[in-house]
Amino acid sequence: MSGQNLEPADNVVSKETRRRVIAASFIGNFVEWFDYAVYGYLAVTIATVFFPESDPQTGLLLTFALFAISFLVRPLGGFVWGHIGDRVGRRTALSLSILIMSGATFCIALIPGYATIGIWAPILLLVIRVAQGFSASGEYAGASAFLVEYAPANKRGLYAAVVPASTAAGLLLGSLIAGLLTVLLSSDAMQSWGWRLPFLLAAPMGLIGRYIRTKLEDTPVFRELAAEDEAIKAPVSSLFRNHWRQLLQAVGAVLLNAVGFYVILSYMPTYLSSELGLGETESFLATTIALVTYIGFIFLTGMLSDRYGRKKVLISASIAFIVLTVPAFALLGTGNFLVIVLVQILLGAMLTLNDGTLPSFLAEMFPTRVRYSGFAVSFNLSNALFGGTAPFMATLLIAATASDLAPAWYLVAAAVISLIAVSLSRETCKEPLRHE
């Protein structure tokens, strides 16, 4: 068995099973990232509830600092979930992670504000955000590995694109709910109780996602390894010892995704309203429209990566960001709503070239015995260092430079590093999944 390539043949996995795998991966990841994203969309309101005595910009910085701190636990989570996913099973890791995320998010809705319990309010918020970060560290990697290992050999890119599409769908629902609450409720009502409503949805959605995932078998290649008792006892140790080059390349490749995702899809409503003076309702509406188109572009990108290769699409994404990001952000400053929507659609389309290709690229980069660990560690390490800090860094850079274009230059720098990392990697889309 050792050294062989493993691939789920089409006659081994039924179409019905694959449909259920897609549905379970989509719903589970959707729930995880809806929970995680609501915090970003309601950052301005949360800042006033938990940091009421700060000036607006300082309160926003503190809110995003909590957002960033929750990412620091993600590399640790990557080690833990990677070990569980490669040693015990992908399904087990995914079923546990969704329970932790949903429970933590539900608890955010129950925290009293600063006016009620003082400094304990932000402390409790921090603890729960850390739990969310730990949970999220296992979700994206696990769902991607799950889909790639179930997918037909010539459609791994398209199948894996379900993961970022479900992430965007979770963001979309978060944006819609936040925008609707902003329209329907007064500022006082939002600060008093309105902001808590989206977090309360976490519990029922999480239980549904958990139920669906427990009804699936683990992937064929993992079950074959388990049957032969070839699962590595210490997958993370093997990862660093035998696959450190791929790990470094993966961390660099993820960097553009980490910064771009949180700047363009999570931080953007706050940027438009707090930095450019656009109304909160218009900011949410513009982001919502962009997210709808983004989901469509994701699947197109997955198909393009299956046809032309992962490297070509990822390199195209980096070049597009290097050339177009600063002019695009300059156009956002015009304040014209139609222009803002078109620019966000453009930025989202550019991001999908990276985001829609990355799950299959990372999953194929590592062999089956350390696939979950390799994906989870590289993805979460890059996100901890650069993704979770992106909203904070964007706000800080604007304050330090007095330039609204500062986040754009930050994105350009991320694109340059990702371009180098991807260029040094090898193409894997036409190869069978490796066991060793």
Automatic annotation (TrEMBL):
Subcellular location per the Swiss-Prot or TrEMBL entry: Cell membrane
Gene3D superfamilies to which the protein is assigned, alphabetical: MFS general substrate transporter like domains
Major facilitator superfamily (MFS) profile domain location: 21-430
Keyword Amino-acid biosynthesis belongs to the record: no
Residue stretches spanning the membrane: 21-39, 59-81, 93-111, 117-136, 157-181, 193-212, 247-268, 283-301, 313-331, 337-354, 375-402, 408-425
Pfam families per the UniProt record, alphabetical: MFS_1
Coiled coil: none
InterPro entries in the record: H+-coupled_symporters, MFS, MFS_dom, MFS_trans_sf, Sugar_transporter_CS
Keyword list, A-Z: Cell membrane, Membrane, Symport, Transmembrane, Transmembrane helix, Transport
Organism superkingdom: Bacteria
Membrane topology: Multi-pass membrane protein
Family the entry assigns: Belongs to the major facilitator superfamily. Metabolite:H+ Symporter (MHS) family (TC 2.A.1.6) family.
Protein name: MHS family MFS transporter
